[in-house]
Amino acid sequence: MNYVSHWDYPETGTEWPEWRGVRTRQYTYVRWLNGAEELYDNTADSYQLRNLWDGRRAPDVMARLRSRLADFLQDSHDDFPPGTKYAEWFTPNRDMVRNAVGTV
User: Fold this and answer.
1) pLDDT tens digits, residue range 5-53?
2) DSSP 8-state code for residue 88
């Protein structure tokens, strides 16, 4: 998926802060386009108010979730470009002419 802050990002040319993530029963892992990462414990912090990732905590959890995200991105042909890159996938009338695997 392309997670952006506003529906018309292709027309605005704005660089929105896209992200990708993985959610398990216990954790939510997020990687932002700029490389920043977040980790939340869904059991202890169901509203995801406390980012646990400080570069040191839970390295095994982070390694597992990073790997899972990499697998998801590869399986979905998602090279995680900035949102403005998707503008070329649509005509001015918002008809989709391509997707991650090629012309539709």
Assistant:
1) 555 555 666 666 788 999 999 999 999 999 999 999 999 999 999 999 9
2) G
Q: How many CA atoms lie within 13 A of 14 on its CB side?
A: 11
Yes or no: say if 43 and 52 are a contact pair by the CB < 8 Å rule. Answer: no
For 61, phi then psi, to 5°, come to -65, -45
- Rounded to the nearest 5°, which phi and psi values hold at 64? -65, -45
Query: What is the DSSP annotation of 42-56?
Result: TTT-TT--S---SSS
Q: Which pLDDT does position 81 carry in this prediction? A: 85
Is the overall model pTM greater than 0.85, yes or no? no
Where are the strands (E) in the chain, listed by range?
19-23, 27-32, 37-41, 98-99, 102-103
